[in-house]
Amino acid sequence: MSTLDILTPPLAFMALMLFTHTYLGLHVLMRGVIFVDLALAQIAALGASIAFTYGAEPGDPWALGAALGAAILAAGGFAQVSRIQDNTVREVIIGIVYVVATALSVLVLSQSTTGMEHLKLILNGSVLLVSWADIAVAAVAYGVISIGYGLFSERLIGMSQSRGVDRHSIYWEAFFFSTFAIIITIAVGVAGVLLVFAFLIVPAFAASLIAVTFKGRLLLAWLGGAFGSIGGLLIAFYLDLPIGPTVVATLGVLPILAAIWRFHPAKKPTHGSGA
User: Fold this and answer.
1) Which of 68, 126, 208, 247 suits 187 as a labelling partner, its CA being 20 to 30 A distant?
2) CA pair distance 8, 196, nearest whole angstrom
3) Tens of pLDDT along 208-239?
4) Burial letters for 31-65: b for 16+ Cβ neighbours within 10 Å, e otherwise?
5) 42 near 57, Cβ under 8 Å?
6) Is residue 173 within 8 Å of 164, Cβ to Cβ?
7) Distance between CA atoms of 232 and 243, rounded to whole angstroms?
């Protein structure tokens, strides 16, 4: 099997993640609920952890169902939390949910003889082993949801910019967070919590440091995320490193480069330059 044969499936799955997660990440930044994606990912992992203790294996349909059920229940709660105007209160609630879900995952998996292996898998994923069947399922689900995002793009962007203050917006909030939960659950089962969170936030945040418009940020995030994904995948493969953490570390360079670009002294007007 050639290098291309080995790397093409994980690259294809990461491309799907980048395409959808970046869009969601920009909404998360506008809404001021930065860690909701990490909390949702961990809750999905908690659902999978419970399934693992009852004999499920990674990739089993009922493990995916347990993860999805947990994530959608949490999404309903986060739809309400996102309407809270106090940013500190929102982030504290989300942070508490995340840390409790993490603790419960550890406790649940500690009861299994293979619990620590499952915990490692939940964090780091196994994207190198992703099958074309997994990619096909993700592509269909992500494609359908992306069509919905495209059809209602203006409404969703307006909601994120106003942070859901419209009293009639609860149905749109439910749509946004439930589809968010589906995307997160599918991704966590393959890529792990760390990589899912990185794809959601890092490219979007880096692009937000440079671009002004939503479309500009989305395009720039896609571009930066593509370079980070390909670079991280190649580094991991040739240095025999875990793919998930390596790609996360590579994506972590994007905000640094964006900050250098934004705050570079050459971009600032000099004193005395005048009219």
Assistant:
1) 208
2) 19
3) 999 999 999 999 999 999 999 999 999 998 99
4) bbbbbbbbbbbbbbbbbbbbbbeeebebeeeebbe
5) no
6) yes
7) 7
Q: Which tokens go with 170? A: 């609860």
Confidence of residue 167 (pLDDT cuts 50, 70, 90): very low
Listing DSSP states for the chain in one string gives --HHHHHHHHHHHHHHHHHHHHHHHHHHHHHT-TTHHHHHHHHHHHHHHHHHHTT--TT-HHHHHHHHHHHHHHHHHHHHHTT-S-HHHHHHHHHHHHHHHHHHHHHHHTTSTTHHHHHHHHHH--GGG--HHHHHHHHHHHHHHHHHHHHTHHHHHHHHHHTT-STTTHHHHHHHHHHHHHHHHHHHHHHHHHHHHHHHHHHHHHHHTT--SHHHHHHHHHHHHHHHHHHHHHHHHHHT--HHHHHHHHHTHHHHHHHHHHH-GGGSPPTT---
Q: Which of 20, 66, 24, 9 minimizes the C-alpha distance to 43?
A: 66
Q: CA-to-CA distance for 169 and 175, rounded, in angstroms?
A: 10
Would you say residue 118 has pLDDT above 90?
no
Instruction: Express each pLDDT in 239-257 by its tens digit.
Output: 999 888 899 999 999 999 9
At residue 225, the pLDDT reads 95
**37 within 8 A of 196, measured Cβ to Cβ:** yes
Better pLDDT: 173 or 43: 43
Mean pLDDT of 22-43: 86
* Domains contained in the chain, CATH given: 13-195 (1.10.3470.10)
Burial 101-110 (b: 16+ CB within 10 A, else e): bbebbeebbe
Closest CA to 67 of 80, 58, 77: 58
